Structure formats: C-alpha cells, structure tokens
Amino acid sequence: MESKEVWDIIKKEKVKFVQLWFTDLEGSLKSVSIPVSRWDDVLIWGASFDGSSIRGFRRIEESDMFLYPDLSTFRVLPVGEGNFRIARVLCDIKNPDGTCYEDAPRRILKRMLEKAREEGFSYYVGPELEFFYFKSQKNTEFIDYNGYFDYVPPDTGEALLRETVDLLDSVGIEVEYFHHEGSPSQYELDLKYSDALTMADSLITAKFIIKYVAERNGYYATFMPKPIEGINGSGLHIHQSLFKGNENAFFDENDPYHMSDTARGFLAGLLNYAKEITLITNQWINSYKRLVPGYEAPVYICWGRYNRSPLIRVPAIPVEKKSSMRIEYRSPDPASNPYLVFAVLLAAGLAGIKGEYPLPPAREENVYAFSSNERIEKGINSLPGSLIEAIMEARNGSIARQVLGESAFEKLVASKKAQWDEYRRKVTAYEIEKYLPVL
Question: Which residues are catalytic?
C-alpha cells in the first residue's frame, strides 16, 4: 500500500492508535504504540527504541535502533472499544545510519528469500498451528476431554475457534480448517498457504489473536510444546513448496511420488541438515519433552508419503492439483520463531537442490516400531534429544550459522546455553521423588 491508502483506512476505520510490531530473536512479539498524529513522522524518521533492552539485539553502548513500518502489513486489529480502533503494522529495523539491522529475524528471512529469488524460486508455506486451551494461566485444567476430530459442542472450544477464525479473517488471514486435535483441550488451525514472509507475519498475528480471544472469554491459550506429561504435545507442521513463476517446481507428473528433481533435492537437503536446524525449529527446553517416541511427534530423520511417523511427509495429491505438491516438515513447534524457521528450512532445501544431494528411499513402515538395531541398519538417525544436544549440533554444523549470520547465531546460542545452564542447576520434584528415599 501507499501512504495515502493507509491514511484512507485510518480515517474510514477511525483508527486512533497504531502498534508498531516486531519480534526479538526468539520470536516474542514486541510492540510500541503511537497516536495516529505521529504516523507521518514515523514513516519518515522511524520510531526509536532501546535495542539493548530486547533479547538478542544490541549492547548498551550501541543501543539506539529505529522501527520503520512495512506499509503492506498495515491492518486494523479487531480490538479496541468505544469510538476508536487500533491498527498494527509489522516493522523493519534499522541502525542510526539508516542501514538495515542484519540480526532482526524479519531481515534474516528477507535475505534468504532474496537468495531463493536469485535462483528463480518463490517459497510458499502453509502451517498447521496446534495449541492448548486451559481454564487458567495458573494451571493446566482442561476445558474438554475430546480427541482428534471429535465433535465439540458449539459453546466450548469450538466457540473460541469460530471467534478466532472470524477475527483472523478480518485482518486478512485465511484459515482453511480448524478442528480438535489428539489431546484433551488441544486444537489446530490450518492457515492457507502464502509466501513465507507474509506467513511469518500472519503466524505472529494469529498467535496474538488466539491468545486475545481466549483471554477475552476467560480462558488461556498456550503454544508451549509439551504442557502436560503423558499426552501429545503441540506441533507446527510446515507444508512447503517452491514455485517458478506460476508453476509448482516440486511437481512432476511422471514420477511415482509426483516429485520433481527439485523436490527431491529440497527434501534431501532437509534430511541432511535436520540435526543442525533443530535448535531453530525447537528452541526451548520443553520442546524436547515433545520430541520423544510414542506421542506422534517426529523423532527419526527419514521421509515417507502416507506415513506420519517420519520427520518429513510428502502428502498425496490428485494429478490435477499439481499446484498443491508440497513437502511437510513435522518437527517444529508453535513456540519457535517463524521467521527463523522458514529461513533455515529454505536454506537447507536450496542447499540440497544446488548440491544434488541423493535422496534416501522412502519409509512407509511405522518407524516408531523399529528397534535401535533396525534403525541403524536402515541408516535412520534421530533428532537431538535435548536442548544442549541441539546447541552442539548447530555449533558443529554450518547452515544455521550461515542463515542467521555470525552475530545473530552467537546471540541465539548464548541465550539458549544460558537457559540450559539454568535448567540443569534446578533440583526438580522428579529428583526428590525418585532419589531422596533411596540415596
């Protein structure tokens, strides 16, 4: 949009305040609000903020940074009361000299998308966003005890979902499906695919609105990967496609799987770098409570078509719908930073295409049922089993460092290492229960 179009919306919708949105390195939403009287000044000069107060940004001696709105992301939010409205706009971040701040997550994704464009590709994604509703933020009391695709009475979680989908539609985010997931009180929203930058912005917005609707109705929504022991955790399955112009570059009508050489290379790259990028796709200590065998979360690095036990799935499509050809990467969780996740997945896939990596055979068996020896014989490796393992894999690898850049990569690793060190110093209730009576 042009500035005039934005002003037309502001006047028509009686917008009084604009929230300037961005995320820190971990993906937490940050915002500063301005009255609309400041809008033109911010477009010219940016909005200054203290970068040293944002996790993973600046040191205190070089803390001045500036937010510049991306006008294409200006949307009136479905919040506010009385005779005024509130809008939000996603922002790019610049240094005092006007150069782009290269460690900003949105900038990192933009860099990677530009590399894809240089190779003739556009990158599209469609995520499946899972989450839990609880009765309170203070505990994990369910709002229902239903399971996968179960009918939900229209006055419970279904009502929260309908309101959420309606509000998402009002800000231009289209939901294809929504339903109850496998665990009690767990739900899923499937967002209609779009280009990766738009989708990353949409995911940040969707998570905000999901939490907003839940809180407004007296509930709590969480994207914590594994809030409850003994049941399935929440994932963020990501369906990906590369396009050349209007043609899906992953589709080949003559291949048994309808996969082109481009798709096979992309998939091989994902498999090759899976261990290295797990720090990005699963960045929290709690993420690895979800990534364990037995709860439908992918653990083993292999691929299949109809099979949902491997890390990567190639969904079956009708030949007539070649634009729907895609590769589903199943390990990310909803507490990840979508800008960084999309960037590393794209980088891994492009590396596989460029390097012509060989694609191992598909696995259509239940990989969870294999013994350790069988997996070794079949060359099936596992994802990192803890945050510290993921940190070491990322450090020993190359792809995450290349995508994020040296500075952002080291900041993220330092933050995650500090969290791991804090965690390993804790004496948990499990240890007291297990060891105190016998040691």
Answer: 50, 128, 130, 181, 188, 237, 308, 328, 330
pLDDT digits (tens, 9 = 90+) for 318-356: 777 888 899 999 999 999 999 999 999 999 999 999 999
- Tell me what pLDDT residue 322 has: 82
List, in sequence order, every beta strand (DSSP E) within 24-121.
Answer: 29-35, 47-50, 64-69, 75-76, 85-94
Instruction: Tokens for 30, please give them.
Output: 């940050």
How high is the mean pLDDT of the chain? 91
Topology of the domain covering 110-429: Creatine Kinase; Chain A, domain 2 (3.30.590)
CB 157, CB 227: distance < 8 Å: no
- The residues pairing with 127 across neighbouring beta strands, listed in sequence order, are 238
d(CA 188, CA 180): 6
Determine the topology of domain 3-100 in CATH.
Ubiquitin-like (UB roll) (3.10.20)
The neighbouring-strand residues paired with 122 are 243
State how beta strands 303-304 and 300-301 pair. unpaired
Question: Which residues 6+ apart lie within 8 Å of 50 measured at CB?
Answer: 63, 64, 65
